[in-house]
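subagent[fold] <- orchestrator: predict structure for attached chain, return tokens only, no commentary.
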Amino acid sequence: MTGTDSPRRVGRDALIIALGYITSFVYPLVALPYLARVLGVPELGAVMVLLAVLQVVVHVTDFGFSISSLRRAGLARSVPERSLVLAETSWAKTLVWAVCAVPAVVTVLLVPMLQAHLGAMLLGLGLVLVGAWYPGWMLQATGRMLAFALVMTLSRLLALVGLLLTVRDPTHLDRAVAWQLAPQALAAVAAWVLIVHVWRDGRLVRVTRAGVSTALRDSAPLFVSHASVVVAGAASSLSLGALASPSQAAFHGAAERFGNAVRGVMRGVVDAMLPRMASGPAATTRRFVSFGVLGSYGLAGGTLVLGSAWVIPWYLGEDMSAAIWPTRLVGIAILLAGITAVLTLHANAEHRYGTVARISGVGAVCAVVLCVPGALWAGAVGVGLALVAAETLQAALFLLDRRRRLRPARTASVTCPPHDQEVSA
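subagent[fold] -> orchestrator:
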């Protein structure tokens, strides 16, 4: 991104990205109540836990490439350079996926609720691998925001149609899992066709072991922060699946879906702003992005807190009314996540990946430690409280870090006399 950005241009691109994510979330908003009615609460709980395990693979396979490759592709100035980034990232992701697949299968075999669904896990892992090759970061790095939004939206609408046509009863659980993961795989196919055959912005290049290793090393500091988010989310679902009932897993899973919809939209917007923030934007643009992100998180979190009491029974049915309080707690966590998101964006723009990793890691440890007693004590509500506590801790640590970094500058501005006074002295 160049220095010609203005709040208007930034707002336009952010709106395109946000609308793409919002439109694409028609899928989960329709799929969740449909599956709740077609599968029933126990089977829906099994689907939620399976997807939680598969999402661990999805996020770990990303390995931070959504940030590091976005930056690398944004700095590339030729088709061969972008092609090399594209190829090295894709093969590096494949390597990470291979490492993650075995523990995911072992997890399914160890959790009693999931042992009968090994076939669904294997099918899901295959779709995760295809989806891992989706170069959405390349579309954003090359300024193709509209194409990014359209590919994302259309892939999810196609998957939704497939879900509604093929999932009819609890015996179709495997299909339900597959269609939940199909959007990313469909988007990967569409994006590669556009990049290679339509825009001619990518070509076959030779990938070396050193190149793949370089891509992995570049993303390694980001992996910890991404993995921390995954661990915190998986800890909640797995603790409920192992220590509570399938119904409690379904209640938390429903609330988590609302939260993930918000986080998914905002994460996409925040990531798209990273090249701008890293290139030294004007103070007006920096403030516009910061307050825009914070206000959007606040609006979404407040909506979940205030609206869940009437939305849940109407949207999911009276049987899911116990998801109201878990949804309120998710809303509170999102309010706090706004602070974390803004300060994380600033830290990543300043290339302080290590700081983000440390704070995210502390938050993940807090979530893991508190989710187990929370699940035993109060089921979905207890897990929700654990996640709020972890989000509070992260926000507080980021604020303390920001205050510490600003203090030397403030001290210098107070103690150092103006330049003209030094000369006159």
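orchestrator: received. Logging for downstream: Residues 353-415 form the longest helix (63 residues). The CA atoms of residues 88 and 309 lie 48 Å apart.
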